[in-house]
Amino acid sequence: MDKDVSAGNSTTTVVGRLALAVTLLAFGLGYTEVIDGVTAADAMSIAQYVGGVALFVTGLLALRHGDAVNGTTFSALGALWFTWAVSSDNQVSANAAGLFLLLFALVALTLTVGAGDQLAKGTYGLFLVSLVLMAIANFADNDGLAKVGGWFAVAAGAVAWYAATAVFAQWPTVVPRRAAGRGVTATG
Q: What is the pLDDT of residues 54-65, one digit of tens each?
């Protein structure tokens, strides 16, 4: 396999983005509580196995195939999702939970800045906002802010799902740039 795989073309990229999408959608919808009887606690098993184990293994496979960016990304996210899932049942203070979410947000910030394509930047950027809002919600004991953070996670999951599906459906994966002003034509 070519070591210069473009974003979105390798199997591990698609699998990783799908696993991340499912996890973000379950996590976000749980926090929004828009579905009656579904809470963030209900997302723990998905976060543990799909977001944790599957994403981590996908990252290891990507590293094995020479894809250092996606390998590192998916392995780090998998480890953090697994940690969130197995520690959510433990009785920790709201401040400790907020601190974990802020540390998770630092990883999301790094991924946002370092992501190669627009869809990855969008996914990680929305997830970053979600984590920061949820961390602040934990520190301030504000359920409304946690719900807003949940919606950002849902949006991030939708973008991750689109990024993975676009490869199969041959949908556009970049926003075309337009000329700087009226009457300006691109050269080429």
A: 999 999 999 999
- Measured torsion, CA atoms of residues 61, 8, 155, 44, in degrees rounded to the nearest 10: -10
Number of CB atoms found within 10 A of residue 92's CB: 14
Contact 149, 105 (CB under 8 A): no
Total length of the chain:
188
Q: Tally the C-alpha atoms within 13 A of residue 78's C-alpha that lie toward its C-beta.
A: 24
> Which segments of the chain does DSSP mark as H helices, in order?
11-32, 44-46, 55-64, 68-87, 94-114, 118-140, 143-169
Nearest CA-CA partner of 77 in 33, 117, 128: 128
| Stated pTM of the model | 0.85
Interior CA angle at 16 toward 115 and 126, to 5°?
50
